[in-house]
Amino acid sequence: MKRALFIDRDGVLDHLVHYPSSDEWESPRTVADLKLVEGVTDALEQIAAAGWLLVIITNQPSHAKGKVSRESLLEVHEALVASLPVTIHASYVCFHHPEGVVPELSIRCDCRKPGTRFLREAALEFDIDLAASWMVGDQDSDLLCGRAAGCRVALIPHPGSEHKRGEVEPDVRCRDLNELAAILMES
After folding, report:
1. What is the pLDDT of residue 161?
2. Is 8 noted as a catalytic residue in this protein?
């Protein structure tokens, strides 16, 4: 079995964006808004070179909330993956939100973190040992997801998501993905 690093996208790989229209820090809505967090490419190269599978798990509710088109969100995601110098073995994107305005996306689902559906699907598809794997994110929902799936969990706090964390204690707190890479290299 293989080990994987399950990675929340926004706040870990790329910066959250403050949109005055909602007065909230959110996922980038356009490719022009996409800015990688400094140092993530080096960290990902180091983690991949050590044999870890890299899997992105991301909630993208902005279309369900009526803020942007699904196509724009997909363009942002594809641009992010294309900008990374490593193989991303899989990307799982949840577009649902229970309080959305787009009827077919306004549901409670098991793919939206903290739901574990995407981690379980990746584990089956890629023969991943969840107990030997990690989930990294910037919010409690990421930590709850990873922990419920049986992974160890790491928190990389992003200032824009501070209000979405504090209830769950991670296995480790890191200032960035480079610090987590160093921890993974030791394990």
Report:
1. 93
2. yes
Considering the candidates 8, 138, 140, 142, report the single residue annotated as catalytic.
Answer: 8
Of the candidates 10, 138, 140, 142, the residue annotated as catalytic is 10
State yes or no: is 42 an active-site residue.
no
Q: What is the pLDDT of residue 96?
A: 85
CA distance 77 to 91: 9
pTM: 0.96
